[in-house]
Amino acid sequence: MIEKSRVDRLGSGTATIGLIFNPLSGRIRKRKDAIRRALTEIPGATCREVTNAHEINASVGAFIDAGVDLLVIVGGDGTLQGVLCHLFATQPRSSWPILAVVPGGTTNMTALDLGILGDPESVLQKLRNSLLKQAPPVLRQRHVLCIEQTGVAKIYGMFFGVGLIARAVIFSQSRIKKLGITGEIYAAIITLGYLAGVLLGFRKGSWAPVKMSIIEGNAELHRGAFAFLFASTLDRLLFGMRPYWGQEQEPLHVTFIQQQRKHPLRSLLQLLSGHGDALKEKNGYYSRNTQALELLVDDVYVVDGESYRAAGGDGPLRITAAGPVSFLAPEGVKEKL
């Protein structure tokens, strides 16, 4: 719960502001000097540059100690994930500042879901205008994924993927990212690559299935080989997609697809175009909303583009919804419907 005093100071123009800037983020690398100049125009702000987890933790800690009211993350989904992990691990929710996101990464799914579009400089200009306007701030609430397994520190983020999704992200980071491609073009290349693999009948490498058991409420829902599973607390993903169709009133959206499913190409197009509700469980397509989910799996997975490994011998991988967290919507940003 955000303290009302922080909201009041933000609306009156007296808020203290911390900026976390990752100059190595995908959309920032080639324009970091221009973005640094834009950062200096944020009124009353202190900026700290970060390039790794240690620097993120130290910077977040310093801003918390300073009592900042607004913490602006200028970077990608991975930078935001690092901030969230440190805040959840070290701070009670009552001491959190309000968060703001400036999309500077490769995919920027959280910013897109919040309706924050444009290059980093234009978003910073909107943020500056909002702060100078001295009006009640517009806040958006989003839950956050919490991923935990025995013997491993909790991981927090907005998007979880295992199976083909994880393999494709890991592959693309080693190949496509080196070309300097970011944003929706980057995501489109990955998507088209998967479509090509489906058409060609690939079942190995990046197209290899993941074997796992899916558990909810101590009951095993499914067991077998799956093409992929993803979970997110975001309402929409890249390209404005909403690839889930569960009807439950819960914050954690989960979609998973069996390896042996019917009509793979047609169904994938329905999934990507937001018509997943036409897909049937009997054909291998599943989607539901929940508060918690457990996976018995021994494979790699990704959270906001960062890769990890689930060890089957350490028990189930548990995914729950934490939060919600308050994000500032700069001037001119509208909630997506």
Q: How is the topology of this model organized?
A:
Blueprint: H1 4-12, E1 17-21, H2 32-39, E2 45-49, H3 53-66, E3 70-75, H4 77-90, E4 98-103, H5 109-113, H6 120-133, E5 138-149, E6 152-157, E7 159-163, H7 164-175, H8 183-200, E8 210-216, E9 219-232, E10 252-258, H9 264-272, E11 285-290, E12 292-297, E13 299-303, E14 306-310, E15 317-329
Parallel strand pairs: 1-2, 1-3, 3-4
Antiparallel strand pairs: 5-6, 5-15, 7-9, 7-13, 8-9, 8-12, 9-10, 10-11, 12-15, 13-14
Distance between the termini: 24 Å
Judging from the principal axes of the Cα atoms, what is the shape?
globular
CATH class label of the largest domain: Mainly Beta
Tell me the helix content: 25-40%
What is the total number of structural domains?
A: 2
Counting DSSP E segments of at least 2 residues, the number of strands comes to 15
Secondary-structure element pattern, one letter each = HEHEHEHEHHEEEHHEEEHEEEEE
What would CATH call the architecture of the largest domain? Sandwich
What fold name stands as the CATH topology of the largest domain? Tumour Suppressor Smad4
SS summary, helix count: 9
Structural class: alpha+beta
Radius of gyration: 20 Å
Uncertain parts: none
Mean pLDDT rating: 85
Major sheet: size, sense and barrel closure?
A: 11 strands, antiparallel
In terms of DSSP E residues, the strand content is 25-35%
